[in-house]
Amino acid sequence: MAFVSELLQAAPGVQIVATSRERLNLHGEHLYAVEGMSFAPQASLAQALTTPAVQLFVQSARRVQPHFTVHETNLPALLRICALVQGMPLGLEMAAAWVDQLAPAEIAHEIEQSVDFLALESHDVPARQQSLRAVFAWSWRLLSPTEQQAWRQLSIFRGSFTRHAAEKITGLSLRVLTSLVYKSLLRYHDGYYDLHELLRQLAEEQLQAVAEEYAAVATRHSDYYLAFVAAQEQRIVRHELRQATDAIQSEIDNIRQAWRWAATQTNIDALGAAAYALWQFYAMRGSRAESEQMLRLATAAGLPSAAFDDQALPQNRQRSLSKLLALHADTLVVQGKYADAAATARQAMTLGRRSNGHEGESYGAAVLGQALTHMNHFDDARPVAAEALHLVQRYTSDSAASALLDQAAWVIYENLAFLTFEAGDYPGARAYMRQSLQRAQARGHQHQEQVCLYYLAQYAGSAGDYATALPEYEQSLALMRSLGDQLGEAYTLIGVGQACRLQGAYTRAQNALAQGLDLAQQLGDVFCQITALADLSRLHCLLGNAPQVGPWLTQLAQLLAQRELNPGRRLYGLDLLAFHALTVGDGPQALAYAEEAAHLAQGYIGYGQARALVTLGQARADNQQWAVAQVAYQQAVDGYAKLNNARLAVEPRAGLAQIALAQGDLAQARAWVESFLPVLVSEPRAGFNSPFFAYWVGYQVLAAAADPRAAALLQSAHDLLHQYADAIHDAALRCAFLQRVAIHQALQRAHAELQAQR
After folding, report:
1. Is residue 531 within 8 Å of residue 512, measured between CB atoms?
2. What are the phi and psi torsion angles at 721 (to 5°)?
3. How far apart, in Å, do the first and last CA atoms of the chain sit?
4. CA-CA distance, 287 to 679, in Å (whole number)?
5. CA-to-CA separations, 431 to 107, 428, 731, in angstroms, rounded
6. Per the CB 3.0–4.6 Å rule, which of 232, 238, 396, 513 could disulfide with 497?
7. Which residues, 6+ apart, have CB-to-CB distance to 302 below 8 Å?
């Protein structure tokens, strides 16, 4: 460095290009930072081959295996290697040196297991460059004791971190941080610092070697980030849900580390304080599995064994644990683990009552009611929900505002609305949701407001009140987008799609469902993907595009094969698979799916069970199993009667008429048609599987009985069919809709014949 300085002073016109890990700190020095080589983690094969990191890997690999090539099979592993070494040229070379012995996937696995895997045995490479550990050791020895301590302690961070966080957790000054940046051991960009991950792991080994120092730094790190998360609860209460979740996302790697350390140290109070905001974050981002894992970790720390005496805990810890248990129970409900959810919710209630933990007791009761409802223990669920509502009302008036108590109120109202709706009381269900909506609006909770609007729309759509459903869906969608609730947006788009399909607005339905599926796949939410795939496939079956839904069905089957799946979603998916098989004429396969769905539906009452029975009746009738088809249809009719839904009951009544006609019992067939004709007059878009099945059966029966109303019914069906077709913007799909759906063809043929006779 002194030589360079002297040279430049003696010869001012000389320019020197030098590579160095550390800045020279000379006047006139211009810096050009050399980052890791670029790559695209999600690149296609063609794109990946143009990126510098992949090119260097291939070039280095061919030194030991001349015929090494990148292909679709090994590309994901190769990109994983690039990510693990963060594009570091030396790391890429070291990894590529193994391709003559290991496949890229094995190399990636070894790197994940130990950084010591990355090493060279070349005799012409300096010792300090023969492994990443050697690189680290060389750099480590060049640091001052203060810098060594700084780098060691900074390894506690995961991902990036701010100067404020570094100062609070490690006590480092800006000068020391800057020194490490100047020595290329720390990177700085847009207000954030970070360490190269592999070097961070080696520095962390140095920190862990000093046990007391490691524990102290890890505790300060955990306290800092859990307090940061806890502070976001106030932002959520202040209607800044998007801002709060964005803030958590920006620090999520450090938050995960902080949460896990707090759990190992049984810091239940800190976990309890941060739990609500983190749980809301996961709900907004659709990360159901991770939410459940993190809360399970926290509750396991609080209750480490079955023999553990939770009564020995101080009251403040009992309150925190009660809250954690209640939130954990909620995540279990979402995953369909209802018995576990009920047991966990009862634990939350017990601890809450014992310690005056109003939040845990109330939310535990709310979730218990949900779990009992999902297990179809309706007689038990109603009084639990009523008692939970009483708790919320009492504690809300006696204490300061609580986000979790407000959340509990929403859960309780939604559960009571569902129980009321499934009992056939549509106005009563909407009344409960209206109460919940008014409470949310009065307390300024926009997230709860949007979900209330969503459920109001769902109940309206299920009851056939589309004029009410669509505006409520649109209101909910606008709020969800403004708050950044992507999962809620996905579900609402699917609801819009279903309502539009049942109204015959197929183009709008297709657009909404496609957007909903795209969002669900981006978020990786299994339940939402199943619903979107099922509804999109059903729509295309009705459009005459059934042969083209193969990729969706493949995805759906893969999702349904997952072991831990919400039974309601499995039922919904199986019902669609049966409907598709019926559409393409595969009677045996349709019957197999329908029988499986109906068996699963035995654990349900209400709309899910009734829909499954309709599809089962159709599958059995398609296979000419008249007697058992009649049983399924009759059960569906009875189910819809209990729900007071005459519109959806049209479909199974038409099925019974079809069976009677096939068996030669014209009088019985006509009686069934008479039972649903008035509904078709008042609600022409009747039925869930097909809007034209009842029209076609009704026409056949009336025509066979020489009833003069047959022609008018056929004309109504023909007019409605072309009304639907005219609203399909895609010419090819419009043509398929009219020409490739068997019932549509039959209706048009019969109409043409009738016109020819006139």
Report:
1. no
2. -60, -45
3. 105
4. 43
5. 60, 5, 43
6. 513
7. 266, 268, 310, 313, 317, 320, 321, 324, 325
